[in-house]
Each structure stands twice: as C-alpha cells, then as structure tokens.
Amino acid sequence: xxxxxxxxxxxxxxxxxxxxxxxxxxxxxxxxxxxxxxxxxxxxxxxxxxxxxxxxxxxxxxxxxxxxxxxxxxxxxxxxxxxxxxxxxxxxxxxxxxxxxxxxxxxxxxxxxxxxxxxxxxxxxxxxxxxxxxxxxxxxxxxxxxxxxxxxxxxxxxxxxxxxxxxxxxxxxxxxxxxxxxxxxxxxxxxxxxxxxxxxxxxxxxxxxxxxxxxxxxxxxxxxxxxxxxxxxxxxxxxxxxxxxxxxxxxxxxxxxxxxxxxxxxxxxxxxxxxxxxxxxxxxxxxxxxxxxxxxxxxxxxxxxxxxxxxxxxxxxxxxxxxxxxxxxxxxxxxxxxxxxxxxxxxxxxxxxxxxxxxxxxxxxxxxxxxxxxxxxxxxxxxxxxxxxxxxxxxxxxxxxxxxxxxxxxxxxxxxxxxxxxxxxxxxxxxxxxxxxxxxxxxxxxxxxxxxxxxxxxxxxxxxxxxxxxxxxxxxxxxxxxxxxxxxxxxxxxxxxxxxxxxxxxxxxxxxxxxxxxxxxxxxxxxxxxxxxxxxxxxxxxxxxxxxxxxxxxxxxxxxxxxxxxxxxxxxxxxxxxxxxxxxxxxxxxxxxxxxxxxxxxxxxxxxxxxxxxxxxxxxxxxxxxxxxxxxxxxxxxxxxxxxxxxxxxxxxxxxxxxxxxxxxxxxxxxxxxxxxxxxxxxxxxxxxxxxxxxxxxxxxxxxxxxxxxxxxxxxxxxxxxxxxxxxxxxxxxxxxxxxxxxxxxxxxxxxxxxxxxxxxxxxxxxxxxxxxxxxxxxxxxxxxxxxxxxxxxxxxxxxxxxxxxxxxxxxxxxxxxxxxxxxxxxxxxxxxxxxxxxxxxxxxxxxxxxxxxxxxxxxxxxxxxxxxxxxxxxxxxxxxxxxxxxxxxxxxxxxxxxxxxxxxxxxxxxxxxxxxxxxxxxxxxxxxxxxxxxxxxxxxxxxxxxxxxxxxxxxxxxxxxxxxxxxxxxxxxxxxxxxxxxxxxxxxxxxxxxxxxxxxxxxxxxxxxxxxx
Length: 1014
Known about the structure:
Residues 868-1013 form the Glycosyl hydrolase family 98 putative carbohydrate-binding module domain. Residues 884-907 are annotated as: Disordered. The protein is mostly beta strands. It is built from twelve helices and 74 strands. The longest helix is centred in the first third of the chain and has 19 residues, at 3-21.
C-alpha cells in the first residue's frame, strides 16, 4: 500500500516482460512435450589428439581435454554439435595437454597425467578417477534429455558437500547438500532470490562443474545429484583439484580471473539522482558536489559518486561535475539505464564508474555479459583508468569486468541477516566482488544503517544509495552517535586498504576473492559447512567477521574454528574450536576476531588513499604466533600499468613462540619491483599484540623505550608498551628506511599473542540488561574472572560518555584462580543523557602470574528517562526502542509513508483522535514506566485510511510477560477497547503483529493511548 513500494514494483515490472523471452540460446520452445531419453550403448569411438568422439546411435558425445585436470564433455542428441556461448565466456586456453587412451573390456579410459575419464560402453556413462585410482565422480546413469532440458545424474558421496551457483541470496556459504538451487534470472533481490547466477558448482569431493551455456540451470544436490540446463544439448567443463581453492582457480582460468579494481573502487561509493529527481525535488547535477562536501566536512572516506542513479534521471555539466569530485578526492560514476552508446564521451569528460541496469539482461545473459564487457572496455579505451562496473544481473565471465550487486533491498535487520551468507557464498563461484547497498535503498533507520555499514567495510566493495528512501542515506545524516561510529568504520576500512588491495591482487592470480565462507579456509572442520557458521565469514585469511543482525547489544552463536583468535577490540584471546554466546556488542562494536599469526599491513590515519604522501608510514598490525608471513602488493592504484609489470611486493615474515614466552622477530623484506609514485623511503610502524612487555626492542641496535603515549607520538623512533591497549600492545615506530633494503625488528623476552602466561589472562564480562538513570547516581556491575592464576590488586574503572561522572575505580584485593568477583562501580549519567543505549568500556588493571596486565570489555547500559507521572500520553513519552514494519512509527499520526511525521490524523471507525501512535505491523514500541504506573488504556484498530484492508493482533507486554492480547482485528473490525492493569511494571511493550502473512494495509493504531501513573 506504500507509494515507494508501488514505484519499485512498477520499475521492475517494466522489465519482467523479459522473462517471457528469456530461456537462453538453444532452449526449446515452451510447450514442448518430448519424453525423456537416456543415451544408449556406445556404437563408435575415435581419437583426434586431445579430443575424443563417442557415438551412441544418433547421439554423439565429444570429450576435449583443456589441461591435465580440466576437460569438456559435450553431447549432441542428434549428432550435430552447437556452441551458442561461443567465445563469449570461455577464454583461449592454449595448447591442450598430452593424453592417451586405452580400451578395456567394458570401457574406454581417456587419461592425462593427473586424471582418467572412464567412458563405459553399455550404456554410455562417464566416471572420473585420479591418477592414484581414487574416484572423483561417477554417473549413475547416462546423460538424458527431452524437449526442454538436458540432465546429468551423479552419485552422491556419503559426506559430500556442494557449493557455488553464483549469488544465492541468503545461502551459499554453507553446503547446498539436500537442496535444489536455481541458476537464472528471477529479478528476486530478497532472501531466496538468485541474482548474478553462475552455472558452476563445486564439490567437497574435489571437483567442479561449469555448464557452458546461457540457458537457465537447476541443480538438485539430492541423492543422486541431478543437474540440468534448459536446452537440448549438453556442454560442461570439469575441474579436478586438490582443494576448493584449486577448483575455483581452474574455473576462473577458463572463464577469466577477477579484475583488479582501482583503489577508489574499494572505497565506499555514493549513488543518487540529481537531475529530474521525483523523490527529492528538482536539483542540478552539480548539486552532487554539496553531498561530496558533506563527506569531506565530516572527515569521511568516499571514493566515487553516481550522479544519475534513478529511472528517468539525466545529467548535465558532466566535465565540471567530474572535476569537482576529483578535487574532493572522488571519481564520477554514471548509471547506464539508457545504454552505453555515449560512454566514450562520458569517460573523456571524467566518468570512471559504470553501473549497469537490470534491463541489461535483455533476452538473455549474453546481453548482460556483453554490457559488462563493453562498459568496462569503454572506460579503458577512453582513459588510462581501469574498467570498473557494477551489475545487478550477470553470468559466468562477469567476474573479469565487474562488481556483482544484489539489487534493490530494504533496510531491515532481516536484510542484514541474509546478506551475510550471500556474499561469502558467491566467492565459491569465482565472484570476487559482491555487495549490496548499505541499509538497502528503501526504508532503513539510523541503527540498521550503522550495523550494516560496519560489516560491509570488510567486503572488497560497497556503496550507499539515496533517492528511493524517505531521506538521504549518507553515513553522516543521522547525527550522533551514528556519525562518529560510521566514520570510525569507514576510516578502519581505509586503513585496511593495503590488506584488502593485496587480496584483490591475489584474486587476479588465484580466482579466490577476499570474502570467504569458513569452509573455504577450514574444509576439515565439521561445523564450517553447517548453519553454525552461516552468519559469519572470513575477510581474507586473518579476519573473522560475525555481524550483528538483530536489534540487540549482544551476539550469540559466533563460531571460532581451530586456532587462536584475538578479539579486535578487547585483545581477549580464545582457543578454537569454540562457540561464543552473549558476546557484548554495543552499537559501536562489530564482533571481529583476528587469527593468531596475522600480519596486517595498514595505512594509518587517512581519509582517502590520496592523502598518502612520499613520507607516509606503512603500519603492520602483528598477532605473533609461530611462523607466519604476508606479502604486501602495491601499484599506482588507478592506471593499468600494473599489467605491464609496474608494481611491487614486499613480504613480512614473523617468527614467534607458538605459545607463551620468547622472542618475536618481524622481518621486512626489500620491496621488489617499481611503479610510478613508489616510496623509495618510508617510516614503519608496528603494533605487536603480545600481552607481555619485552625487555628490549632492537632495530640494528636497541631502540629507545618511551614512557607514555605522548612521548611515543612526539618521537621519531622508539617503542612503548601500552598495557591498557587491547590486553597489552608493543608499539614501535622507525625513522624513514629504504624500501629497497630488508630489515628486522626484534622484541626480546616477550611472548606470543596472549602473553607469557596466556592461561593467567583475566576475563572481564558485564551482566546484560543494566540500567542507569539520567542525572541519577547509579551503579554498574562488572564481573572479573581469574584465569589459572590468582588475580591481585585489581582496579575496575569505566570509560563513559562525555558529561558522565564516575567514582574512583573499585578495587578487589584478590580473586582466586578460576573464580569470579562482581565489582560495582558508581556512575552518574549526564542530566541530558538521551534515553536508550549508552556505550561504556570497563577497564580492569590487575596483576597475575607476576605480570601487570589490563583487560577491557565494551558493553551497553540502558539509560532510562524519568518515569512518567499522572496521566501520560504514550505518544509523549520517550521510546526506548521502536521497530515498525514500514517507515517509523508515528506520534499522533497514522503510519503514513517511509518518512517521519508524514502520516494523517488517526481515525478509527469514523472517529478522529488527537493523541495516539500509528504503526505498521510488525511493530513494537517500548516505554519505561519504572514501576510507577497502574493502568494502560487505548482504542485499538486498523486506521480508516486503509479502507477495510489489513489483519493484525494487538498485545501489551510487561517485563517479559504478555498482559493482554486482542482478537484478530481487520480493517472492517470495530474499535477494540484496551484497559490493562500494570501494577509494578517497569518496561512495557506495545506490539502490533501481522496475523495472515500479508503486510498489506496493516496500519495498526493505538488511539488515545494513555498511562495512569502515581
């Protein structure tokens, strides 16, 4: 019933006519009713080098070896081969391998040095074996076909798992076993849709299959496995590998390695319509520069801007706009809704990003793939820049020319949840860059925007889009605390660009993207393929990201696989495998863990990559454990000169104890290679997470030890042990050093990550649900748990928001090993502290096992407003939380559209109310009463503006108990009187719930909603 929904539906519906013609080249006409036919006995065999022909009556199969582990099987039911995809997808592969064949009694064996394909004679049936005789896969029956599709049927292993099929919304990072997966355009950008499908899957048995077609596919990973394509021909490439990464590498060698984005493409992008924007009023293209100024003024990174992102949106003053963006450290992008005929002139005027429209799918994926390639080429042929495109629907091969984008979504918690497996799962199909708009393009809120932005900073690419939502969605629009949190995460991504860009380069060699499901890094972990790891992912090999996807300050079910993992924010270490529940995650905290042994290159303290100068430092964030290394990749970041060898690599090697005490050495190799702008000298910074202070730090000779953060900041060279930073961190800086020479930094008598006595580490936790009153003296409870050694001389302090007052640190003289002591700290929030979540950090200094250490923990406390008195209207109270099915819940108005205060007068059964709350199911309004109120009264019903539609139920809950529930209410129901006793209730929830599975018209009103209080 909402107007923005109608706009979106109309925009997509205009394209859905394409589905009627979409079936892909070579597909049978609709209505064909040909029965299934299975290939018969082998009647002829011939060999021509690495190509083999096998006849079975009128049908003919052809086997062509591409490499020692890659080959192609084709089947023509009528004996005539066709190749609709031609050279659109598969790239030239060079000289085929040496092969041999042998006839045995029941079969032919076609072999390379690595694999043998068996072709059984009666009936014709294929099976693949490795050189050591182990079976990879086998058909349970021969290839079959009818007038619509061609199908292969494979035996399924007892523990065999399956992945791939491209971007499968809400799925893909865990196994497809027992599931049916569709591969083809559906314009469904919600959970369960499959935009950017790829006709490729891989198996844990060590093989992958690519169906060489533009036709839709269906893969049923049941027992047996049946995979079909909607065409009367069979054409598939097979890859046999030692690992999933190996198989992805072979597949992307065949169809193209992922492209290397420009550095600005890995920064966040911004999209909106500026010329002829129906949602924002008339603006000019140059108005985009005012938005760009907002990023600069708020000290926020932004790499590029689409200035015409909206149906019917045009542009003007292109060259001036491009120059203005470049002056602000950004690049110009355009949406190609109207095609790319003008891309040459647009690129010459400054365009560097091309976002393709869903209309580019046209009558099939060939059109979409050609659009991606042509837009990419259009940028490169008219500038010295790298091609950089975004595509909402694409196909195999698009990884070499664009970012795959998951379409138009709403900003909701559920949207965050199902996008987590989507992008990690797409990596299993060779898609190195997949993403979605931050907080969607419809709806959204300050909190969902902030939570969504946090984890998307650990994707390679992402963007934020305005225009379709009720208000603009730049990360600085929501005010505090959201602006500061968003800035911190945007700048964290900026500092991590050397790490992420190195993985981008690695993908051009291996085909494996940075965003990875756990099973790709931990294939032998029995939980990695299951739902235990569904809502988390690896960002490179070193970061495990577990986004918060509920309106909560805690996160459950975080699975950490085998190894040592360090909490990025607190420095607390965990030994996997372990599952974490009740992880404290206030709004500013993304659950983020770093793998033991990590060495992460960083650019500290920048807003844009263009802020880097010849004198800028390179920082290494080191989590020492055993022997480990990382190779940094560098080039000029924007041109194509790296393809001609203009780049450099520099390797960091770390040697440390596997656990406990010892020396730590960081060896930085010489930077090998050259490119324009390469630093010949630069200072280095090291942050080494040891948990124990070294006796000395050596770089040639001993570096000076500095006594404070201020002294360290002022010094040109030296080191400082900061015991209060994430469990204890050694901070080191050097004077500028030649990048052409290797050097070593040695930390004497320190430890691996976790400290000399990791088991003696104290753990800080904070009970959830703690409340404090604005301007009122309160206490906060902090639990300190000793490790394997006693904790002594513990002092517990709090880092609180500005304007709050904290008493002196509370003390605990001794906490015996393995026990927990609760300590209460007195705190007084500011009088004007806003109701809701307040983010606090507990800091505990203590001694254990002969060392002075510090433990920290971030947490959220609820700031409660003064409880109401007398007769209080619900719409006049502060709302602790407010969730709503569409847009914000409204005070003294009906729900309206997606903006604030855009509803109409509250009207039930012809009666208009001045006071009340207008909602849209599902809705939940929480208010704080502090035990002071005795009753709640209201008139409940569906607003008259809906004209009889809708079906909901109302309920009142208090302190976890349901006090009252209405009967089912429809748009035609009489008004329901509400009169609920509240004696002693502290927290009350007013809920409106959909009852028929349809949210259409569910505008539930709490009219004349009032609390009676003492």
